[in-house]
Amino acid sequence: MVDYSKWKNIEVSDDEDETHPNIDTPSLFRWRHQARIERMEQLEQEKKALEESLKEAEQKKKMIQEKLKNASDTSMSELKKEIEVIDKNLKELENKKKEFKKKEELAPWNVDTLSQPKFSKTVINKKEEEKNYEDMTDEEKEAHMKKFIKENESLIKQYGMLQKFDDSKKFLTQHNLLVHEDTANYLVIWCINLEMEEKRELMQHVAHQCICMQYMLELSKQLKIDPRACIAPFFERIQTADIEYRRQFEDERNAFIQRIINRAKEKIAQALKEQEEEEERERKERLGPGGLDPAEVFETLPKELQDCFEKRDTELLKQVIMKMPEEEAKYHMKRCVDSGLWVPEGGVKEEPTYAEAGSSEQKADDLDLD
Length: 370
Fold this sequence. Notes:
The protein has helices at 25-69, 73-106, 111-114, 138-160, 165-174, 181-196, 200-223, 231-239, 243-286, 294-300, 303-311, 314-323, 326-339, 354-358. It is an all-alpha fold. The protein is flat and about 85 Å long.
């Protein structure tokens, strides 16, 4: 059986050209990507602040330790107390550092983290043998996947589009380094994106290639051999397989496709919910002093008044108000005040009278048309 749990902590791409028809694609991608960038920047700031606090505490401790060398009996006890306080603070900071590192490791992979190196390293005159993937830490696996995808993304996509077993066998034999966990991970993300774009037929095709890859990886674990050595054995088996083996393969593929469909639905529902929450948050931030949304109020204004606000023309606004029936003018101007579209002179929030709204002496800076 294929283990799907390892793919739970991967965020799908948020910068594809298409997405679900019920989602406003440009705004969704823009605010979701921006929100993630802001979260990453905030985490980076917290990390720097934590490192600076640790550095300051260690420096302070060294200074006090130097003072202890020449301290008198009277001051020595006070200095020792200070060191105890610093040690306690250092212990708390070290615990926070461990918690922060754990938070970083548990953060989902996404297009921004995959395209940025976690760390860099230069080795001179020494060629290191690649570490076994199963023995890598989560951090090492993440760094490996970024590098692997950067170097092999084009080849992975070519493999994902192949249709015949013979073609796949030949291609993987020529590019056997693709028989790797990172290829399977990439194909899973691709499948989810395709399903969210409603490209079901293509998704099913890539899913088939993903299961072929996973079968080879599972076979290598069972035989305890290099995955690249499993290319020929797998394709020979699947092409000459008995009915039971083919049925098992097809059941596994169909189950995987259903998981992709379910996961895509969850992602779409999550995206819609986040979009609604973000829109509601933005709406609340826009609310004027009277609790009205300026965007909603603007949409209800007569075309003549909308033109005034769009052009930011104070004199035109006065003229339009004077031509309107008194009750209608009072109604619209009160809503403009309550939504913040119009700010009376001196910040007065009370309902303006019809005479005030149309007075020729009213100053231009009484109106806030931004």
